[in-house]
């Protein structure tokens, strides 16, 4: 399966993947998924939102166990983010059949459409639409960098954009959703485990900090006469690092804009964007408040105006504890030690669906922690351990 997928959408220069929603590379991935489903004798269908489903057993029977992930990528993404979950789902089914497992609940394997949001700027469009967290009207109007709407792109790819929207009947037939994913971090590398179970997706948000001073000549303005917002910004960056360290959270200024942006000019405005994430919302609020206080204190000392605007916020996703603990138990080692349970700072379709159905995630060790990059990696032995773990979980949930 990896050999089939290897060349699809791979950029010859960067060796990264460019599998964007509703493009030719995406169509090739989807064709591959359909072929895998039919080869295995599964009933193949595409839902109203362009998500692909491969069914074993009767979907109408209800209480289905669903597993899968996505096949699209970020710009110059790695081979594992997404495809590892889809390939492992198919391989886990093969493994269960080889074990002679008897299914007592319907099983489905999915490929969710447009997970990364690389083309239209919003992540998890397929699952958001299905779960009713994105309206059809809003989705249809999303535009890519060339001004092409999502509706037009879907239509050109052979799907009906008028049909998209919330799909509660479909969700009502699902009893559990399990997504296997390459870990996007080093927790399993540090703990020495090939596979772990997700506890939660950390709450996260973006805040814009505007620092306003006075533009002036870099060669003629005495230091004591300056109102330089770059210094307040620098104080704020250091404060963010310190607040995050003290709270066990994350805080990053990764984007900055400067006016007038001249080498020989003291800036009039520095605008920096803070991305912050923490285990719980109270900690996150405390970190951001601490950064904001440090920015205002520094600004007051040097005559710099500070404005802070929250641009986005995503609340915590707590995966269902019953399913999470059941998975950790099913994956216990020979001494009865349950599989490690770990949180993540990254978003997933499983996070979106968790609002509507019991959802869980398995992570496979990533030896460098690098993700969203061609350097993303996982050892073959760990990938195989992931398949076995997923097969064990599906057997525990869906078989006699
Ligand atoms: Zn992913």
UniProtKB/TrEMBL annotation:
Keywords: Hydrolase. Gene3D superfamilies: 3.30.70.360, Zn peptidases (3.40.630.10). InterPro entries: Amidase_Cbmase, Bact_exopeptidase_dim_dom, Peptidase_M20. SUPFAM superfamilies: Bacterial exopeptidase dimerisation domain, Zn-dependent exopeptidases. The keyword Hydrolase applies. Pfam families: Peptidase_M20 (PF01546). Belongs to the peptidase M20 family. NCBIfam families: hydantase, PRK09290.1-4. This is Allantoate amidohydrolase. The lineage of its organism: Bacteria, Bacillati, Actinomycetota, Actinomycetes, Kitasatosporales.
């Amino acid at each position: 399966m990896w050999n089939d997928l290897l060349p699809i959408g791979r950029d010859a220069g960067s060796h990264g993947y460019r599998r964007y929603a509703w493009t030719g590379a995406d169509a090739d991935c989807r064709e591959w998924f359909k072929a895998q489903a039919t080869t295995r004798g599964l009933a193949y269908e595409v839902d109203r939102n362009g998500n692909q489903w491969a069914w074993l057993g009767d979907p109408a029977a209800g209480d289905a166990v669903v597993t899968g992930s996505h096949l699209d990528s970020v710009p110059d993404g790695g081979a594992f983010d997404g495809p590892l979950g889809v390939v492992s789902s198919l391989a886990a089914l093969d493994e269960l059949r080889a074990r002679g497992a008897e299914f007592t609940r319907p099983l489905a394997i999915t490929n969710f459409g447009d997970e990364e949001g690389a083309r239209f700027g919003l992540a998890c469009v397929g699952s958001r639409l299905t779960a009713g967290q994105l309206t059809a009207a809003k989705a249809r109007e999303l535009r890519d960098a060339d001004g092409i709407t999502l509706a037009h792109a879907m239509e050109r790819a052979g799907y009906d954009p008028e049909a998209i929207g919330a799909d509660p009947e479909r969700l009502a037939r699902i009893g559990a959703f399990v997504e296997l994913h390459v870990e996007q971090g080093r927790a399993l590398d540090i703990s020495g485990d090939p596979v772990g179970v997700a506890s939660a997706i950390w709450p996260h948000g973006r805040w814009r900090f505007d620092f306003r001073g006075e533009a002036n000549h870099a060669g003629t303005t005495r230091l004591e006469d300056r109102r330089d917002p770059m210094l307040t910004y620098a104080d704020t960056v250091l404060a963010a690092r310190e607040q995050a360290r003290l709270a066990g959270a994350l805080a990053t200024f990764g984007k900055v804009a400067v006016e007038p942006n001249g080498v020989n000019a003291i800036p009039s405005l520095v605008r920096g964007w803070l991305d912050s994430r923490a285990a719980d919302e109270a900690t996150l609020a405390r970190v951001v408040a601490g950064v904001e206080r440090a920015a205002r204190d520094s600004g007051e000392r040097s005559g710099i105006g500070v404005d802070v605007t929250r641009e986005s916020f995503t609340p915590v996703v707590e995966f269902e504890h019953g399913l999470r603990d059941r998975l950790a138990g099913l994956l216990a080692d020979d001494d009865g030690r349950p599989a490690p349970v770990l949180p993540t700072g990254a978003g997933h379709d499983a996070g979106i669906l968790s609002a509507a159905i019991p959802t869980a995630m398995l992570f496979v060790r990533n030896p460098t922690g690098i993700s969203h990059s061609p350097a993303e990696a996982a050892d073959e032995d760990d990938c195989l351990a992931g398949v076995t773990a997923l097969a064990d979980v599906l057997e525990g949930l869906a078989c006699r």
